[in-house]
Design goal:
Layout: H1 10-14, H2 16-47, H3 50-77, H4 80-104, H5 109-137, H6 143-171, H7 174-184, H8 186-193, H9 210-220, H10 223-238, H11 245-253, H12 257-276, H13 287-314, H14 326-361, H15 364-392, H16 400-418, H17 421-424
Helix pairs in contact: 2-3, 2-5, 2-6, 2-7, 2-8, 3-5, 3-15, 4-5, 4-7, 4-8, 5-15, 6-12, 6-14, 10-13, 10-15, 10-16, 11-12, 12-14, 13-14, 13-16
């Protein structure tokens, strides 16, 4: 509500179309996160390899990049409702195939890689298109509130989804977990089908590479949007410890799939709380400074996670060392969860300002392409981060990737923001790309 610390829900009241789209994203997002966590657990069960889990994202990166670049052009060239609907159908079909293979006992690591890549590509187009739709449904002054509501949707998805996935995989197996995602995805179809027509506002020739090139050229003359992307890449490249969770649960913390769900959900709980109490963020004008500080706090929390893992390792409390001190390990899980919640809150504050900057400063006829590039950054950065963590973990020190990554994020982002005058002076009352 305006003037309160609590989130402003005016966008949901003002635009029924936005409200339906938001509900669909929220419900289907929960199912999507269930599948993401389940696939990671599934591959770890089949291979017992953290690097194999990391390769899920790396293999999906190429298709996601292509989908983000070309899909953004599609969103600018055609009715965004139709583009979103087609992308949703492809994503739903790929998830349904994963569920079918799991029920038949025919799943293999290569098939999981391929189907996850298809889902990632379709989801990239869907997310970019939905983000480009939002400014067509709401006035500019409500975009920060919409970004916070998007954080709520994402927070619920990555809080409820991983927790439910961990429990379901442990209790009833992978087939049921994937199948529930297939059912929940129906909510996304409803939200898209009830949208009004959203025809393009300018002519974009998607049959030519020039449409994508034009989007890239726009970024060349948009220093604030470029820096928006760059600081996020740094954070995601060096601050994504998620592929460590299965190994950390098995070797350090003495847990199972439920422990993985707790660690994953803790990050989301922090993000969710940050969104719930985001009411005053709409009054912040200097978004560039706010983004930089939020990401530096994120780096500090990632560093703290590395410290927690190091203390468990060298304190002799880990499962791998043969310790039977359950109290110490439970305390370590709690501390790790608190640290990850702090990281999630910092990341969400950054995301609210980054999303608002993109939607307010980018012209509508470029918005699909820029959102597509943004989704590539959001999806590609963590996948490269997964590779960084997977490779560094090969030396057997699970605490090292977050420890080093947290230091790099804190120092490098501070330097980047300090050297960018336009980013530091960005004013939300006069949004310039």
């Amino acid at each position: 509500m305006p003037g309160s610390h609590l989130i402003d829900t005016t966008p949901l009241k003002l635009s029924p179309a936005y409200a339906r789209l938001w509900v669909g994203q929220t419900v289907s997002g929960i199912g999507g996160q269930m599948t993401i966590v389940a696939v990671g657990l599934h591959i770890y069960e089949l291979t017992n390899s953290t690097l194999s889990v990391a390769l899920v994202g790396i293999i999906a990166l190429g298709p996601a990049v292509v989908a983000g670049l070309y899909g953004g052009a599609l969103a600018d060239a055609f009715d965004r409702k139709i583009v979103a609907l087609i992308a949703a159908i492809v994503s739903w079909g790929a998830t349904g195939t994963i569920a079918t293979l799991a029920w038949l006992g025919l799943e293999t690591v290569p098939t999981l890689y391929v189907l996850t890549a298809i889902t990632a590509a379709a989801s990239t187009i869907l997310n970019a298109t939905q983000s480009a739709i939002t400014p067509r449904l709401l006035p500019r002054e409500l975009l920060p509130a919409a970004a916070a509501l998007g954080g709520i949707a994402n927070g619920l998805a990555v809080t409820v989804g991983p927790a439910v996935a961990g429990v379901l995989v442990a209790l009833v197996g992978f087939g049921w977990t994937y199948s529930i995602d297939v059912v929940l995805f129906v909510a996304a179809f409803i939200g898209i089908l009830l949208l009004p027509r959203l025809p393009p506002t300018n002519t974009v020739r998607v049959s030519h590479v020039s449409a994508i090139v034009d989007g890239m050229r726009f970024l060349r003359r948009a220093p604030n949007i470029r820096m928006n992307f760059l600081v996020d890449i740094v954070a995601m490249l060096f601050g994504q410890p998620r592929v460590l969770y299965p190994a950390a649960a098995a070797l350090l913390l003495g847990g199972d799939a439920i422990t993985v769900g707790i660690l994953t959900a803790s990050f989301a709980i922090g993000a969710l709380l940050a969104s719930l109490f985001s009411g005053r963020l709409g009054a912040v004008r200097h978004h560039g400074v706010a983004i930089g500080r939020a990401i530096q706090f994120y780096g500090v929390f990632i560093l703290a996670l590395g410290v927690v893992f190091a203390v468990v390792t060298y304190g002799g409390w880990s499962v791998e060392s043969g310790s039977s001190d359950e109290t110490a390990r439970i305390a370590s899980i709690v501390v790790a969860a608190i640290v990850l919640a702090g990281a999630g809150a910092s990341d969400e504050v950054s995301a609210i300002f980054r999303s608002t900057m993109l939607q307010a400063a980018v012209p509508d006829h470029f918005r699909g392409r820029v959102q597509g590039i943004f989704i590539v950054v959001v999806q590609g950065g963590p996948r490269l981060g997964d590779l960084y963590v997977g490779l560094l973990s090969l030396i057997g020190l699970l605490w090292l990737p977050p420890f080093v990554g947290g230091i790099v994020i804190t120092l490098l982002v501070g330097l980047m923001v300090a050297r960018s005058k336009t980013f530091r002076s960005y004013d939300s009352l006069n949004p310039t790309p």
